[in-house]
Amino acid sequence: MAGLMALIIGAIGIASLVNGTYATSLADVLSVLFGDPANDTVRMIVVEWRLPRAALAVLLGGALGMSGAIFQSLTRNPLGSPDIIGFSVGSYTGALIAIILLSGGYYETAVGSMIGGVATATAVYLLAWRKGVQGFRLIIVGIGVAAVLSAFNTWMIREAELNIAMSAAVWGAGSLNGLGVEQLVPVVIVLLLIMPMSCFMSRPLRQLEMGDDLACASGVHTNRARLILILLGVALTATVTAAAGPISFIALVAPQIARRLTRATGPALVSSALMGCLLLLFADWAAQHAFGAQLPVGVMTVSVGGMYFLWLLVRESRK
Amino acid sequence: MTEFMASSHSDRLQAENLTLRYDQRTISQGLSVAIPDGSFTVIVGPNACGKSTLLRALSRLLQPSHGSVILDGCSIHSMGAKDVARRLGLLPQSAIAPDGITVADLVARGRYPHQSFLRQWSRADEEAVAKAMVATNVADLSRRQVDELSGGQRQRVWVSMVLAQETPILLLDEPTTFLDIAHQIELLDLLSELNREGRTIVAVLHDLNHACRYASHLVAMKGGAIVASGKPDEIVNAALVEAIFNLPCIVIPDPESNTPMIVPRVRRSGFAPRK
Prior knowledge:
The complex is a heterodimer. Chain A has helices at about 1-20, 25-35, 40-75, 85-100, 105-130, 135-160, 160-175, 180-200, 200-210, 210-215, 220-245, 250-260, 270-290, 295-319. Chain A is mostly helical. In chain A, helix 1 runs parallel beside helix 13 (about 270-290), helix 2 (about 25-35) crosses helix 3 and helix 4 (about 85-100) runs antiparallel to helix 7 (about 160-175). Chain A is globular. Chain A starts with a helix and ends with a helix. Chain B is α/β, with parallel strands linked by helices. A 6-stranded mixed sheet of chain B has the order 6-7-8-3-9-10, with helices on both faces. Chain B has a 4-stranded antiparallel sheet with strand order 2-1-4-5, covered by helices on one side. Chain B has a two-stranded antiparallel ribbon with strand order 11-12. The interface of A and B includes residues 211, 213, 216 and 266 of A.
């Protein structure tokens, strides 16, 4: 199943390298990737423009899928996803402060969103703390904090000057438009650190699913393990938001689809990450080519993910 | 130290002068208990007498605010978590079966303390899981999902999971609650068999007659303190039951096992025998 997903990711990846305003053929792209290029323009377009963007879609999608899997497993709830429990909204708040109050550029915005995400996660964690953090309380507190912050975000945009508000809103849609190698390198470095650490924590995470008492009795330091896992999950989401703005619903949907396809039980971090890669890569390809104009990928994931979210709410409430 | 030496003997699991608290509420004070090696120890007592709390302390889940739990001569809280988990297993009341998990997968999770990131699944794990499923008679169910099993089957699966942990000492918190009488007996027979094979078993039970029949060592608690402990036929009598549960009763030999059997007295106001 993982092999099949990797294959599909490869196929969409190639497609997103071939398609674009400047017409290139499959043969052009393959010659660039595997041999020496026919001409320099094609090489520049494929390697310097399209490849970093596709790579970013794969990496950021993977990070979102993995982050969603961590939080859904920790909360034992399909709604327990970082975009539902306020971390993405908090990142946006951080970014807005950087853009509007400090008139920061790309990197200042990235740092602002990183800080915003981590600060929100800390606040949610502390507010939900009662002799340990229990999943359902984390979700409810998170949704509340998200609502407060999202009202604050709207107010900040309203108060800002028009052109600044416009760029803040564009960032807030979540987009890979115009991202390239400069943005790719830090993402690769950060994810190379966080993703293996998350996989390392997936065994204690699996024990935690059976309840704290049983996890503790089987040799897990429950509160410590949960804190580390929350930090890793927040770091994964915050990396994505810092690089591309808040991209919703991938973290919510990817683990669920992966779980149904693989019939796996447990956190399933790797298959969720692969599914996240696949979804974001496809969504970004569709956002670029399906509607004539280039849309921010966040718009794409929100509209498709929103429908899934509705279905999930209806299904959960009927249980 | 002298206090410790005075009551110290060779039992692997014991508690010394424990003070147990939840937040500021003190449950027990000056509680000492030794679990005889190879015994089937049953802890009994009325609701909220601190029996589950004692079990949580014995299994490292609750840190005593005073005193210590000693496992193999060391304080349990100074030992590594996995090290403890290889010697002492616990089946809590609060165990949650993850959505859609199969019996075999759940039992396999009992192997956690024997594994590490680099050594995830070995032949020893495979054998322990197979053995645990056979011992608890759930091998035929191994591919089934835990959510779709009956209560009795599910409880055997959980016991199977803690068995796969392969610990010489096994603690169970009210394992028979929510089971009908036939499944209660079935589970207690299973625990008794595991005990005969050499495991030390400690269980919290509600049913006094079951406790008397199955326990080789009985610990009776009230108000966070141990009122009596010893072999059931040596300590259980009408006076003890009345002292602990405030229940007038007579104690007669169980016609089947010859262990003490508690029969509550008919109270004039409560029950009128039918003519």
